[in-house]
Amino acid sequence: METKSGYVSISTENIFPIIKKWLYSEKDIFIREIVSNACDAISKMKKLVSIGEADLPDEEMNWKIEVLLDKKKKTITVYDNGIGMTEEEVLKYINQIAFSGVKDFVEKYEGKTDESQIIGHFGLGFYSSFMVSKKVEIDTLSWVEGAEPIHWESNTGMDYSISPSKKIDRRGTYVTMHIADDSKEFLDKYKLRETLRKYFSFLPVDVYFIDVNEKKDKKEETEEDKPKPINDPNPLWLKNPNDCTDEEYKEFYKKVFMDFNDPLFWIHLNMDYPYNLKGILYFPKLKLPYDSLEGTIKIFYNQVFVADNIKELIPEFLMLLKGVIDCPDLPLNVSRSFLQDDDCVKTINSHITKKVADKINGLFKTERESYEKYWEDINPFIKFGCLKDEKFHDRVKKSIIYKTCDNTYLTEEEYLDSVKDKDDKTFYYVDNAAQQSQYVKMFSDSGTKVFVMDGPVDVPFMQMIEVKSKNKVRFVRVDSDVANALKTDTDKSREELDSIGTSLEELFKKVANNEKLKIKVENLKSSIPAILTLSEEGRRMQEMMKMYGALSMPMDEDVTLVLNAGNPVIEHLCAIKDDESKKEELDLLCGQIYDLALLAHKPLEAEDMTRFIERTSKILAMISKKEA
Ligand code: ADP
Description:
Bound molecules: adenosine-5'-diphosphate
Distance between the termini: 122 Å
């Protein structure tokens, strides 16, 4: 054969600058495209063998891809022992088809300047090698009998020459890329190996990485020096779930997500119809508040890695999980914005949502004890899912449990069944069990359950439950109101109680230095002299303002000091309040009662603390004097 040369097309001069600029941020996809082609070439060869079109001796069926790095010559070469190409095929596939693919690609996406909008870049194919190369060579020998070895080369992607190959003497294809100076980072062994691992850790064909400059000292190759593939061609997600052991799931998780901890549990996705989807979703053990809630879902396309966390593809709340999803039916070579309306994406989304809900309900029903143990870790995920997806909430709502301050877990139904007053659907809760312990004690003394709602999504979650119940279910923080359960019968009438309040009001406003402080008098079951309450609505409003960055308004407005009429100190106050000679004592006692109530409500600020300590000392001195 003679050497031929020419131009692939004339009207295309500006295509490469566009592609180059356009894909600059993801240059490493060239390696994905070239190795994927090698893998395809092997699949085709396998297919020909399997249907009896080709007959190969066993030793020629050790399917493999080699990636050869020659830093000295500044080349990266990808070899596959796949189908190879004849001269006609090179002219057709490389000069025409591959190139028209590039043209289509550019025509379709030119003007869409945001490259992150494109997911797969599949379809750019062979020509992506010119993004990093100043020259690309192909040496190929077709499997067809009597085929000649062919050499093709091009400096720009637009010119080419084709001639007999001197390099190749075995079936398959070498693609040799002469790396341009602006891409020399790929000549770094570690960078290249890392890129290969990123995309091909689970490729179905063995991939070997070979540094050709590395000297082999030993003459004889032992079993240990034998090159090992960088990939695992049979990833766990492809196995039949019935054949996978717990150990395998855990090991796979640790390897892929580099987490030392075992996952809590997992879901093996295995869908054949109407779309093909396989994968494993893991519920990780969270170390809140140190860990962020963000997970990682790795998307694969026929065992080739595509990207992490493509939010258009999977339900948003699943982003809190860790997992792998391989779906050859997903349209990954389109713009992301198209995916949202894609039927395949929608079907897959609801399939995954259902599987996750089924798993949660299954655990709740059959393994309640372990489920309660997992709850701390999985509740942010479940609650977030409920907030984001109504259907998910409908599916799992019966499996939602609430943790009480004494570490038991109840569903909404179980709790409401246990409450005596069937019309009262109030959940009392704490969001800071240590700080609110005084209130918790009062509630538990009266036999009322208090729940812990201190998670990252509990506030919006409670709000959602209230709205869904048409405000029949209410969540009330323990310091929001004096619950009926905390009051006890008294022989004093409402008027008498109120008049005590009126008579002490000015004194307390003064010591609290808050003109708007409200005073209420109740007969409490507890032995403490007073508690502070802050209305649930007022507090939620404040929290919301804080969340949106608005200056938090002072909480003075909505604060009520509830005095315990049955407490001896309060009774004493009533007795001495008009006695001029007891004025100092009166001030000290009122100040102390107010600060104690404040202390049980929130930490004291520096100034208040100093005042509190000084006053306490004075009171102690006073008692000592009396005793003396
Ligand atoms: P695509 O892979 O999307 O078809 P490419 O531009 O990557 O587009 O490749 C164009 C064609 O060139 C392929 O369809 C294939 O026929 C041929 N080809 C590319 N690489 C190889 C290879 N390593 N072995 C055999 N044929 C190849």
